[in-house]
Amino acid sequence: MDDQTVLKKTPLHALHLSLGAKMVPFAGYDMPVQYPAGVLKEHLYTRTDAGLFDVSHMGQVVVKARSGTYADAAMALESLVPVDILGLKEGRQRYGFFTDEHGCILDDLMITNRGDHLFVVVNAACKDTDVAHMKAHFSDCDVTLLEDRALLALQGPRAEAVLAELWPDVVDMKFMDVCDASLHDAACIVSRSGYSGEDGFEISVPAENAEQIARALLEDLHCMPIGLGARDSLRLEAGLCLYGNDIDTTTSPIEASLEWAIQKARRPGGERAGGFPGARRILDELTNGTSRRRVGLKPQGKAPVRSHARLFADSEGKTELGEVTSGTFGPSVEGPVAMGYVPAQYAEPGTQIFAEIRGKYLPMTVARLPFITPTYKR
Amino acid sequence: MLKFTAEHEWLKLENGVATVGITSHAAEQLGDLVFVELPEVGAELTKDGNAATVESVKAASDVYCPLDGEVAEVNQAIVDDPSIVNSDPQGAGWFFKLKLKNASDADALLDEAAYKDLIA
Asked: What ipTM was reported for this prediction?
């Protein structure tokens, strides 16, 4: 991005500045990377108490069939996403991804059955192309990017108690439930999900109420604001992919070890097998596997191994295996954590490989994901 | 004598040996450090070459050698506990001691007032 580009602001921009956030450009928005507490403390606080994240830059999209029926909207989205959306119950959410004709990933998204329509949340950097992609393919649905709403994420073991101060009914929700909620008399949509590996919520709120609701949540002694820096280390410890790093148009869902997100109905022999872009490759890979896989990687030493570090089978750099796609220091793990792609024969947990860092070859162990134990309320 | 560089290092000069660390300003900008890698004792370093690496949760940063010299001693304490660099950057958080090739080279570095102007 050149310096002339004017960064967009979320409805919470003024709040971030008043809280002393360090702001950085991210996906065309001026976003808080950290607050005065710093990334390390923000990360740990989210795992012990509750962290509030502004994720308003993400795309909130309504897909509604002109027939007015959920099934028609679901069938339209199923033509682009290899997920059982028809079988998703009202008030429930599911993870998925748009695939391209090569069977690779255009974006990942959260999909909710809202009764008579679909509510989907997509990545900030992809939202315009995702909306255009859906509009081009859905002749009988209206696709609307909601520009007048903010999105807050409230994550951590105390998130339920913090949100219950504003909306007591939250205690009845389970992981991946989605409900309407009135917070300070504003019509909100609350989902019990997130991107940290902790129990928590994402709350879609009208833009004009966003700051008031965020301030009310932050009034709780067990809630503090968390920036994008800690959001990244939290999701990496939780083994969750970042679009653009760990998955993109060069990776298939099976290579990315995301086959768990493809339900039986869309698999070979399923009621609605295939029928999405790249289905031939993806169905073949579900049966026959792939030559490479995304795996967790635990550096054996203390040095963080960052994205694009090259991976080798040996400590002399002779046999190259692939590269790290995300890597950082995991504050909760108290050591470095990473993920990357390796040939299938190196994907077994416990396998030792090496990463090239500053001319040295550091040993790493292929590890099961996630690196932490998630606390989702199932 | 205390000297500074535009790359946010400080040097305490005594008898041709410089104790080198990063400034409070640099430590604040980097955030909580989680990893430090120091040069080997005996390594011959050149001015502006890589001397050390520090990493926060977010990113890795290089620490450059402020002058030509030979590494005489390193501070293992900050390798074992990188948070010392954040809590006491211009004291217990020193990085290494450099036996200067030419002690007079230090004259060209910034004094404290000039460094404060730079970061103001």
From this structure: 0.88
Question: Residue A15: pLDDT above 70?
Answer: yes
> Are A33 and B56 within 8 A, CB to CB?
no
A34 and B35 within 8 Å at the Cβ level: the answer is: no
> Could you report the per-residue pLDDT of A288-304, keeping only the tens digit for each?
999 999 999 999 999 99
Q: Count of domains in chain B? A: 1
Domain containing residue B31: CATH number: 2.40.50.100
Domain A13-49+149-237 coded CATH 3.40.228.10: no
Residue A39 contacts residue A233 (beta carbons within 8 Å): yes
Answer yes or no: do A229 and B57 touch at CB < 8 A.
Answer: yes
Burial readout A323-341 (b: 16 or more C-beta within 10 A, e: otherwise): bbbbbbbbbbeebbbbbbb
Contact A38 B32 (CB under 8 A): yes
Predicted confidence at residue A3, as pLDDT, reads 53
Range of the domain at B17: 2-119
CB contact under 8 A, B55 and A41: no
Q: Using CA coordinates, name the residue in chain A closest to B57.
A: A329
Residue written as token pair 């604040």: B28
Q: Which CATH architecture has domain A259-367?
A: Beta Barrel (2.40)
What chain A residue is nearest to B50 in terms of C-alpha separation? Answer: A358
Partner B contacted by A137 (CB < 8 A): no
**Start-end ranges of CATH 3.30.70.1400 in chain A?**
59-145
- pLDDT, one tens digit per residue, over A108-165 is 999 999 999 999 999 999 999 999 999 999 999 999 999 999 999 999 999 999 999 9
B53 interfacial to chain A (CB closer than 8 Å): yes
d(CA A122, CA A130): 8
* Residue whose structure tokens are 């951590």: A156
In this prediction the pTM is 0.95
Q: Which of B57, B59, B60 sits opposite A40 (nearest CB)?
A: B57
Say which CATH superfamily domain A59-145 falls into.
Answer: Aminomethyltransferase beta-barrel domains (3.30.70.1400)
